[in-house]
User: Fold these one by one.
Assistant:
Number 1:
Amino acid sequence: MSTAEQGGAGAYARARVAIDAAHAADPVRAPDGRAAELVYAERMEAWVVRLVPEAGELLRLAARCQHLERWTSPRSSYPEGKVAYLSWRRALYVQQAERARGILIAAGVPEAEAAEVATWVSKTGLKTNAGTQALEDAACLVFLENEIAGFAAEHAHYPEEKFVDILRKTWRKMSAGAQAEALRLELPPAIAALVRTALGG
């Protein structure tokens, strides 16, 4: 390995440590006691590697930044309603992208690479940028595999039509490869039934 390659590997390693340290500050804890966002980061990276076997360290780091310090800007910090929800989500994308870029640059990752990660994390170029799409696919799959049952329980007052609409929107955001992976998931029966309805059968 050349000196330049070693330097790059060192920068990536430093960035990974810094990203995970930021996740560790999440006050919400997973059942195993770890920070919830650290668990989420691991699930994101695992799905990206599964979807993109040739994924390099930069894309893997970007996957770990998907919810970077999201806990600092909770949904409750914005008013109720769809317009406010969309504003909150857009602000999160910008916040997470800039935080990721800053961490990577501080770790020694070249500015051009850090900017590329920021593009992916900000969801810029969905459907046209491969890195952005990989992160979106992984996020949708983490939601379906690990979060949708809890989401449904938390929003039990939603009518079935709203759940079906959410699933349809999630499906449309995914690539064909991610959709194929989603169909292989072992979902709770009630959720699987909603997915079948959303997909028209």
Number 2:
Amino acid sequence: MLHWKDIINFSVNGNPIPDTRIEKSELEWKELLTPEQFRITRKLGTEMPHSGAYCTSYEAGQYNCVCCNNELFDSSIKFESGTGWPSFTQPIKQNAIKYIKDSSLGMVRVEIQCNQCDSHLGHVFPDGPEPSGLRYCVNSESLIKKTA
């Protein structure tokens, strides 16, 4: 189980090695994604709070990267954070996510990306429920749900 100190360590000292890497040109991503998915995943965008399809969805299933189908989160670790974005306590596996120090907007945060294709997912914060204390705050547009 990952904790905040692990996240900080990854963001400072390097991320886990992904199982595989997928690289495409900007044009290839544009052809694959909707304009909103492209804006969020490839251009570091954010959807409006409470607007995402998976904000209030709690059916059993798995959440994968919309860009490369990498397995990211399971519905069993999803929780209602009250923030307006889907929130999870842990990734499916340690090397599914890449962690990047983000000093934009006048604050320090940790951006989360798909470790397989560098798709922007959202941010992780140390204010989630126990036992990990983590809150992975994710844009719905960066995910695709695979039902059980």
Number 3:
Amino acid sequence: MIDLRRASERGRPLIMGILNVTPDSFSDGGRWDSPRLAVEHAFEMADAGADLIDIGAESTRPSASPVSAEEETSRLAPVLEDLAPSLDIPVSVDTMKAEVARKAIGLGAEMVNDVNGLRGEGMMELCAETGVAAVIMHMEGTPGTTHSSEMGDGYMESIRGFLRERTESALEAGIRRDRIVLDPGIGFGKTHAQNAVILRSATFFSDGLPVLIAPSRKRFLAEAFPGTDREQATFQAVKEAVLWGADMVRVHDVAGTAAALGFSRRL
């Protein structure tokens, strides 16, 4: 089971390794869309220090085309079938669709990472029914409009209010409090300047729950850390996020992140 205690209790944050089994993700689309290569990469990330692997089969990059539940499941299933029984760390599924999440949970996924904040039909009920951990993320707008949306004044309170409302709804639906993680949604309907503030604000959003910060290779890094390539900027961003209270970080380069944080072994 995923240890979702706050980083202050565990002694360090968790590293969530990103595994995109998509042809069109913004950073590594197509690189791991072979099940064999995807499974191999998951084991590489585990060996490098990942505490859990987050598998996604639908890109959420700007201008990405949505895919059907059937297509998303067809990408996920072969990887999960091989990976979940043999990997010694938990697997998370990055999806907005309850139908896809149910299949993934049946194949061994222990967490649902939902960029839509458990707002899709049946998703909250599924997480309550199965007892999996759930990441509730803030997205400004909808999946189709978020990358053309920008938040205005009061965005920090607005994000926190959304996360509080979704948490209360999750608890009322039967999701246990110790199974909830909050994500303020860097890159989803925020300006570069807003993303830079959110990066350093995990404790502001927490309300006693663990907070996931996901800055990996995102566009705002060029402004937040000028003169640094996106990978090195990601490592700097992760260190900043942890300094300001992040309990979990979601990254592409697990080995580099572990080194940046000063450790290389899982709990």
Number 4:
Amino acid sequence: MKTNRWRPMLAATLTIGLAACSSGGISASKDGVFAPGVDQRKEAVDGVDVGHRLLEAGEFELALRSFSRAALANGGVNAEILAGFGTANLGLGRLGEAERLLRRASLRDDAYAEIWNNLGVVLMEQGETVEAVQVFRKAFALNNGESAQIRDNLLLALAKTENSAYTDPKNNKYKLVRRGGSDYQISATS
């Protein structure tokens, strides 16, 4: 009989406690501390832009997801999305996959100099210096020599081919370039 007497008090305590946990609880904040809801009327940010921002932040797995969503939203892949996939894979250390994707991107009609540059970076990472020089030259030509990063990568590749004894892994720094002015720096690991 004694346990029945405590049940209503326990139920009232639980109800008050749970009400305090909700956003509209006992003393809900009026200053907007809680996150706003999602505005479904606004247009979403382009997945390619989000992917590039995630690449800049070093969030390569999330960038892959963002580029995948962009491919679905755009009805397929273009050179920029393929390059985004390749760059994210390069950041994750998946050099074979990065090379395959960047080669596909470079064969597209809408390929641009930065795609060729990033392919050259992958080739340099894999030790394919002679082919990387040719790829950097193509990137340099497409860019009309305006990108300092592409020029630096070409000069480094040329120096490495001229002096094959140049194998100091501490000096193997290549710059990944993205369309729109952002650049990424990936250091070779040995």
